[in-house]
Amino acid sequence: MKLTVLCDNNSIIDNYYLAEPALSFLVEDGKEVILFDTGYSDVFVRNAEKMGIDLNKLTKIVFSHGHNDHTKGVENLLNLKQEIEVIAHPNVDKEKFYQGLDISMPIKLKDFPSNFKITTTEQPLKISENIWFLGEIKRTVQKIKPLENDYLYDDSALMYIKDNKISIITGCSHSGICNIIEQAKKISKIDKIDVIIGGFHMLNDPKLNNEVCDYLSFENINVIYPCHCTDLKAKIELSKVCDIREVGVGMVIEF
């Protein structure tokens, strides 16, 4: 599997791409070319073009959840002509608000062009040879605070399985990064975690930082790439219990 960061809050020195407070990863596994989230604007499209990536080859789009910093950029793909499967939780296009602002997905799933095949599921779903969509994340080990009375049950993630190890790709982890890990282990029946990359939703919350770090200290994860909605203090705390790496637009990881 190959993962390319098309959009993140950060860019990397000497890689002259655009950044915005949003997220989009290109994930390639065998014949499948999967876009995991679409950022907020056309930034991911412009970066992909500069990287020589042809989005006309996309086979699937997966939404981690329905917030507009992960979905609004899809407006730039609606003119694509190939058949594309869109995979998400059924609540992904439900209205969402934060501090009075509408931060919902910009288009209802029913309004996508006819060449976009819509698949919504609360259940785990295998979407390529080695990748699973985790479905609705059970809140088992980490308590979740609602965001504007919204528990974001549509928040999910991807899991990649190789050599009896799992890697996890997250969007924002509104459902709790610890809960996501537990669900991935339950679905795969594998306890060894190789890599985690994505947003951890650890923002100005020392109690949450301690809770997550305590959990991760027992997991023996090979490497973590925290980004997007993971602030500096959280990264510092994570570095005390895990090997963490920097993330930025243009970064490529091969699993």
Note down, in words, how this protein is organized.
- By secondary structure, this protein is of the alpha/beta class.
- The chain has a single domain, classed as Metallo-beta-lactamase, Chain A (4-Layer Sandwich), CATH 3.60.15.10.
- 17% of the residues lie in helices and 26% in strands.
- The chain is built from 5 helices and 15 strands.
- It has helices at residues 43-51, 68-71, 177-188, 206-216, 232-239; strands spanning 2-7, 24-29, 32-36, 60-62, 84-88, 97-98, 101-102, 116-120, 125-126, 131-133, 157-162, 165-170, 193-199, 223-227, 252-254.
- It has a 7-stranded mixed beta sheet with strand order 8-5-4-3-2-1-15.
- The longest helix is centred in the last third of the chain and has 12 residues, at 177-188.
- The N and C termini lie close together (5 Å).
- The relative contact order is 0.17.
- The mean pLDDT is 97.
Brief account:
By secondary structure, this protein is of the alpha/beta class. It has one domain: Metallo-beta-lactamase, Chain A.
CATH topology: Metallo-beta-lactamase, Chain A
Main structural class:
alpha/beta
How many domains make up the coordinates? 1
Portion of residues within helices:
10-25%
Task: Spell out the CATH superfamily.
Answer: Ribonuclease Z/Hydroxyacylglutathione hydrolase-like
Assign the CATH class: Alpha Beta
